[in-house]
Amino acid sequence: MTTVLIADDQPLQRFGFRMLLESQDDMTVLGEAANGAEAARMTAELHPDVVLMDVRMPGLDGIEATRRIVAGGDRTRVLILTTFDLDEYAYAGLRAGASGFLVKDAQPEELLAGIRAVATGDAVVAPSLTRRLLDAYVHHLPAASRPEDAPDPRLASLTDRESEILRVMGQGWTNTEIAERLHLAESTVKTHVGRILAKTGSRDRVQAVILAYDAKLVKPA
């Protein structure tokens, strides 16, 4: 059973989400929050698998709420909801530690699939969309605190093959594309991706792609 907390300042929107989620045999809604402060507090109390997080809410917004939830070290994953697919707030949410984002006009089955994916530790952003998103907002990345030619210490434990795969992940390649182009079994690619996440401390694929940008393995188009 996947447990969900709904965070949205619109009562009708929360009602719609609750109706959809509770129609599923494998989901249950633990509660509803009308702002970011409530979402962060209720997450600490209820420990949901997934928080469905609106961005624009009064007081504490969804970005800062996401940052607090992730910083709290809880196993809860955050799925950002945004109005536009290249909204800068969606980018900020990913930087804050969200496991993905969906647009609010997504089909019900897309939302349900997204929640299930996030709950199992996957990231809910198509690889090509991740690349487009980061290319659009890469100027928000903080300036590196190390010399330009110094290696990023987070990559130190990666093998050459893992570094190569992280680089092409950042370029938007799917696991299938990586397997085909690098002549690997897809199961092998999945194993490499899992090791990359573990070694770099990335919560999911999106965070690994952001790392590839941070470490300058990938440059914006």
TrEMBL record:
The modification 4-aspartylphosphate is found at residue 54. It comes from the Bacteria. Residues 3-119 form the Response regulatory domain. InterPro entries: CheY-like_superfamily (IPR011006), NreC/VraR/RcsB-like_REC (IPR058245), Sig_transdc_resp-reg_C-effctor (IPR016032), Sig_transdc_resp-reg_receiver (IPR001789), Tscrpt_reg_LuxR_C (IPR000792), WalR-like (IPR039420). Keywords: DNA-binding, Phosphoprotein, Transcription, Transcription regulation. Residues 151-216 form the HTH luxR-type domain. This is Response regulator transcription factor. It comes from Streptomyces marokkonensis.
